[in-house]
Write a structure and sequence with these properties.
- By secondary structure, the protein is an alpha/beta fold.
- The protein folds into two domains: 158 residues, Rossmann fold; 164 residues, Glycogen Phosphorylase B (Rossmann fold).
- The protein is built from 14 helices and twelve strands.
- A seven-stranded parallel beta sheet has the order 3-2-1-4-5-6-7, sandwiched between helices. The chain has a five-stranded parallel beta sheet with strand order 9-8-10-11-12, with helices on both faces.
- The protein is globular and about 55 Å long.
- About 1% of the residues have low confidence.
């Protein structure tokens, strides 16, 4: 088979990396197209995944639309030449119009309900739209549902083994309390009108959490000097090792909140609209606590973070909840393979 995979975000590299490895071992030809966003290119290079970069992320709504048009045109040229039997992507903003125009089947994996600028046409044009059971919107016959979240494609124990050397690299001892904080750029098409955590409360969160252990900040944006000294300075592929050993993951990233849950770490996620899968991770498994971006909720989220850090059994409790969750969820990589095989 000839398979084309479009990578739009660093998290998508992780979603597809095991699938790519397995399909290539089976003798299939896999072509990856990429987008220069955050550490996406670095991750592709680290995992030795050959790729063609089609565009670089833009910083405002008008330029995002221009980028999408340019990216779609470039992908269409590549697809005509490569002639894939099927195309895969998370979100599917580029592959679906190209697939629709060229008659190529498209498999879209997505769980972000509030990406309204693209969701309406992606679903109309895609062949199959594959989403978690927790996805809030009820879709039609194209929609395949599965129990779990994207992060299960690469962080299940079958695929991921934490490297304890990360602790020494960042100056920690095994069992030591520490927090990872994630600030996003709010530059995606579905981030319009979002502001996230205020600067004052970002500083307050760091100061409060430091009372209970070290703090490491992962940020897409430039940090003020007061916070920059806590910036996490390790290779991006090592972040999951650190999350595995963390006591708490706090911030504005739904992906990191979900990753923490799969790795046995409590997380706090702030977003006005939230996500269906983070809601499920809170209500069904008690691994995530969701808050809005309101000032009142930001303050509440910091207090909740302190409660977790004060709890000496927090890590043990989270690990047990994750064990239960893993038993009830599917291997998304296997699901990808099964769905692809239908187009042989």
């Amino acid at each position: 088979m000839r398979i084309l995979i479009d990578i739009l975000h660093p998290a998508h590299v992780h979603v597809f990396k095991n699938y790519i490895k397995i399909m290539e071992k089976r003798g299939h030809s896999v072509l990856v197209t990429s987008r220069d966003k955050d550490v996406a290119i670095k991750l592709l290079e680290k995992y030795k995944i050959k790729h063609i970069t089609l565009s670089k992320i833009s910083k405002n709504k008008v330029n995002l639309i221009k980028e999408l048009i340019l990216r779609t045109w470039r992908l269409a040229k590549i697809a005509r030449k490569f002639k894939p039997d099927v195309m895969l992507g998370v979100m599917g903003a580029t592959i679906t119009p190209v697939g629709w125009l060229l008659g190529i089947p498209t498999l879209v994996f997505y769980g972000t309900e509030n990406a309204r600028l693209t969701n309406w046409y992606v679903y109309l044009m895609c062949t199959k739209y594959i989403s978690p059971n927790a996805y809030r919107k009820k879709l039609g016959k194209k929609n395949i549902r599965y129990e779990g979240a994207h992060e299960l494609a690469y962080l299940r124990p079958k695929y991921f083994k934490p490297n304890p050397n990360i602790l020494k690299e960042v100056g920690l001892k095994k069992g030591e309390n520490f927090t990872i904080i994630r600030f996003v750029s709010w530059g995606a098409s579905h981030d319009i009108c979002h502001k996230g955590i205020s600067q004052n409360l970002r500083i307050k969160a760091v100061r409060e959490f430091l009372k209970y252990g070290k703090v490491f900040i992962s940020s897409e944006k430039k940090l003020p000097p007061e916070l920059d000294k806590y910036r996490l300075r390790v290779s991006p592929e090592k972040l999951h090792d650190l999350i595995y050993y963390a006591t708490l993951v706090y911030g504005e990233s739904a992906t990191l909140a979900s990753e923490a849950s799969v790795l046995g770490t409590y997380s706090i996620y702030l977003d006005n609209e939230g996500r269906g899968f983070t809601d499920e991770l809170e209500k069904k498994y008690g691994l995530v606590k969701n808050f809005t971006e309101s000032k009142e909720d930001q303050i509440k989220s910091i207090k909740h973070g302190i409660e977790i850090l004060k709890n000496k059994n927090a890590k043990k409790e989270a690990k047990e909840k994750t064990r239960i969750m893993l038993k009830k969820t599917v291997d998304l990589t296997e699901l990808m393979i099964n769905e692809t095989d239908k187009f042989k």
